[in-house]
Write a structure and sequence with these properties.
This protein is of the alpha/beta class. It is built from 3 helices and 10 strands.
Length: 160
């Protein structure tokens, strides 16, 4: 199972839509908020099953703020991250994910890509494809591959 993970597009989706035309196929989309309607646009283009989470910038929406899904027998926690204060510290989110029995937690909010793997949990923030922060000049997104093992990687919009 190959899952595209995108967050924090903030109505700037043309770059990621163009980049995805060059990518291998995905089996699922996970969109982690800010703005959920952008997740719908990506979903429409890819025509694949999708899970869309509302972020702190999605004020009036019916999308969930957090969701647990199971893929290939692995539990994945989806959240935007703002209610766990991820800009300052990952401990609250880490322990919440462990308490919920998650194998993977996917979150956004910071616009800074991050991948952390330990024996208990994989944590990944795909960053932002359109509004990178943290000194980055190129946007990013994530790819989560689940088979006999779980592989999480950050992909950049432009190499160079």
């Amino acid at each position: 199972m190959r899952i595209l993970v995108v967050s924090d597009t903030h109505s700037h989706v043309q770059g990621i839509l163009s980049k995805l035309k060059e990518e291998k196929e995905f089996d699922m989309l996970v969109f982690l908020g800010d703005f959920a309607s952008d997740g719908e646009r990506i979903k429409e283009m890819l025509k694949i099953p999708s899970h869309i989470i509302a972020g702190n910038g999605d004020w009036q929406t019916n999308y969930p703020r957090e969701q647990h899904i199971t893929v290939e027998g692995k539990k994945i926690l989806l959240t935007h991250g703002h209610k766990y204060n991820v800009k300052n510290d990952l401990n609250r989110l880490y322990y919440h994910a462990l308490e919920s029995g998650a194998n993977v937690v996917l979150y956004g909010h910071t616009h800074i890509p991050m991948r952390r793997i330990d024996e208990n949990l994989i944590m990944m923030n795909p960053g932002s494809p359109s509004l990178p922060r943290g000194g980055l000049t190129t946007g990013s997104y994530g790819v989560l591959e689940i088979g006999t093992k779980i592989d999480a990687k950050i992909c950049y919009m432009r190499q160079g």
